[in-house]
Specification:
Layout lengths: L1 H23 L9 H24 L6 H23 L5 H23 L5 H27 L9 H22 L2
Amino acid sequence: MNRNVLCLLDGLIAFKEKILREVTACSLYTANYPLLIEHILREAKLYRQTITVLEEKGCMPSEELKKSELFWNQIMMEHAMFIRGLLDPTECELMQTADDFVGDYCRLLEEARKQDCRTMDELTIKTLETTEKYRDFKAAGAEGITLCRIRSVILPLLADHVLREANHYLRILKNEGRR
């Protein structure tokens, strides 16, 4: 099954790379940000790498934890950028909150790059606290969008997707804390 998934992922990655090349060369136009296409590409490549490592080693090596935290902090920061860019301009307070989360994750990324695997624990605790607050923001946003209380061009399915990814990241962070 994993070999079939890897084959499908290779096709998805090649397709998204082609789309990105064409969008950045202005030979294909889309309503999606080029950063969103890159974002999806990075997620697909991480998934491919994870499957490959699990196939080869049977578990994830501990040195992958810092890489994982860097990856997911980048994803969370980009989610905040996308949310900010998809809110109606009248939603000033929500736009400011999204901007604040962009700053929070940018700082966490900078701090994590300076750490080594032995000194990541304290930063992981800060990341966990930030991500819990961000998950709550996303949950309120998903509800507000679904109930038509928030003005935006964010589809309810997208709001749910970014909320699920925050919950997924929280599970990763909580598992890291137990090691």
